[in-house]
């Protein structure tokens, strides 16, 4: 980051990135996408560590697909200093 050199692309096909946060000490990046998932990346290893879906308590699975479709998208992310938790805010609060 200090020399602003572009080193790595993380591509999530068909999804738009809504927000990004980086850990202040560790090489971790989290990003939220329009599919409702938050994805976790290790910048040092250049790999995807996983993802999780953030949903409201009143959201239920779609009867046709049996999957939960996120209707309240994440607008802000923050990785807490421990690196073990994230804080997220959604468009509806």
Q: Secondary-structure map with pairings?
A:
Elements: E1 17-22, E2 28-33, E3 37-42, E4 47-53, E5 74-79, E6 86-90
Antiparallel strand pairs: 1-2, 2-3, 3-4, 5-6
Structure description:
This protein is an all-beta fold. The chain has a domain at 17-56 and 67-90. Helix content is 0%, strand content 39%. The chain contains no helices and 6 strands. Strands 1-2-3-4 form a 4-stranded antiparallel beta sheet, with no helix packed on it. Strands 5-6 form a two-stranded antiparallel ribbon. The chain is globular and about 50 Å long. The mean pLDDT is 80.
Large-scale geometry: globular
Alpha-beta classification: mainly beta
Share of helix, binned: under 10%
Indicate the radius of gyration in whole angstroms.
14 Å
Poorly predicted sequence stretches spanning 5 or more consecutive residues: none
Give the topology string: H per helix, E per strand: EEEEEE
Strand arrangement, major sheet? 1-2-3-4
Structure summary, number of beta strands: 6
Number of DSSP helical runs: 0
Report the sheet with the most strands, covering strand number, pairing sense and barrel closure.
Answer: 4 strands, antiparallel
Strand content: 35-45%
Through-space gap between termini: 31 Å
Average of the residue pLDDT scores: 80
- The oligomeric state is single chain
Q: Characteristics of this structure?
A:
0% helix, mainly beta, 39% strand, four-stranded antiparallel beta sheet, two-stranded antiparallel ribbon
